[in-house]
Every structure is written in structure tokens, then in C-alpha cells.
Model the fold of this input.
Amino acid sequence: MPEPLTKILDHIVHLTPPGTVNLVSQQFRDLGFKVIPGGRHAEGLTENALVVLPDGAYLELISFIYPASHYPPGSPERHRRETMPWSEAYKYPGWIDYAFLGASNRSGVSISHIINERGRADGSGVRYNHEVSGGRVRADGKVLEWVITTPSVQSDEGQEGRGALPFFCGDVTPREWRVPLDPPSNSEHPSGVLGIAHVKVLVAPEWLDRFSAQLTSVIGDPPSESSSSPHSPSEYTWLLETPLSKGSGTSRPHLILSAPVDEEERSYVAERGPGIFEVSFWVKHGSKEGASTTPYGRITWQVISM
Done:
């Protein structure tokens, strides 16, 4: 059996402060996105809303339900809340993570095994944790199930892998339950958004080559482009798929891995560490152009060539 693709962009995660899902939903509507209800996650600590895109990928607008102080000191709930990868101790609000489409645990395919074998073979050192179960209860009561595969980063590397390297989400229940593309109006946006154009990840210059090698192991392809000079690149690019992409064309998204090139980007990395600096969206001609901001993140609009 051929290996599954490990470069299908599934969704991008945007975090806001506790209890703000309704507020951020309106803020994204004001930017020209249609936002639909999500639900509460199985661990009982987070909730979300969704922006479903015509290319089959989506944005997850997530927040914790309560601040950590809501839970009694020393309680299991307080410990789980404080040690989640997206808690305030690890992540600032904004674009905090992105997921590739994984495989169900019922398929007999282990994404972590595939990537770890690649990492050993090519010497990149990348490692992913074994799949764990997750889920969410939709607003209509439907129970969703999936498995999550996350990057494992040693503490002595001084880097946080979540956010710079993708995690994988593999559906146990049908993906259309998690990503409701029906009715088609769910993915029709006043801004004219057609899909993801790129996800730009920033890392410190000294970590660029390491993350490039690790992303190559994860994606299964070498970068398609590098810029600056062939001897000292400051940016690498991979062409990704989306769940509804047809394999070619300008509408496919790119993953950009870059070292900071200006003061804004250098400040971002100094404050937040490696992670998503910017998400860009394909739009129709005559729609939005230039750059905008979410409450905590940067977005750009890129006119598609038809």
C-alpha cells in the first residue's frame, strides 16, 4: 500500500483569550469571513468556531472556556488547563498552530511511524508522538472523533515544536462532520476568499536549516524554492495540497519557512519564538487586497490568477 500524503493542509488555529469565541467570530465576520458554530472539545477546556474555506481547509477560532484561575489550585483540572500546549504559558494569542490531514487509527496507518522513519533515514532528527484520541461535541450534539499526532521536541533544543512544525488530525468519524462543506453557503465569504494562499512560519536564523530539514521529513518533499542566495538562503517554500485541491494550479497553498527579514519579524520571533507569522488567502479579482489584522494575527489577501 502506498504511503498517504503528509502534505495536505487541514486547518489553521487562531487563539484568543478565554471566553472570547463569540467575540472573535464577530471580528472575523467583520473581516469578510463567514463563521459557523463549532463546539466544545472532549477535554472540556476549549471551544471553537470555524471558517470553512472552498478549498476544503478551514480556520479554527479557538479559546479556552475559562482562565486557569477558574479551577482550584492543585486540582486535576487546573493541571490539565495549565499544561495544555496552547495555554498562556506556551502560546500568545494569534496564529498558534496548523494541522495537516492525518489518518484514522482504524486505517492501520500510523503517521508518526511514517515520519519518524523518514527522520531516521534522512538524519533530520524530527520525531512525532504516537497518535492519541481527541474529539468535540458540535453545537447540534453530534459527537466527533479523531486522532492527533504531534511533534516531539526535546527541551534542550530550546524550541517549541508546536506551531513551527504541523500536527496531524486524522478523522475517525467522517471528516464532513468536522468540516461541514454542506450546504455550500458555509464556504461562501463576503470577502471573496477562495482558499489558503500561504502560511508563513518564522524561525530564528540559526534554526532555519534544522526546521527546513525537519519539514522536508514531515512533508515528504524537498522545498520547491529558496531565496536569498543558494549558499545562504533565508526562506524555503513547499507546495502543499488541500482536501479539495486537484493536484496542480495556482490555487494550492504554500508553506513558507523564513528567517526574519525586518524589525517587525525580528520582534515577533524574539517575543513569541518560532511559529506562524502570517496567513494569506486567495481572493477573486476585485476583492480585498493588501494586508489586514485579526485581533492578534496578520493576514494578507492575494488575488488569484485565473
Observations:
- Confidence is low (pLDDT under 50) at residues 155-159.
- The longest strand covers residues 193-202.
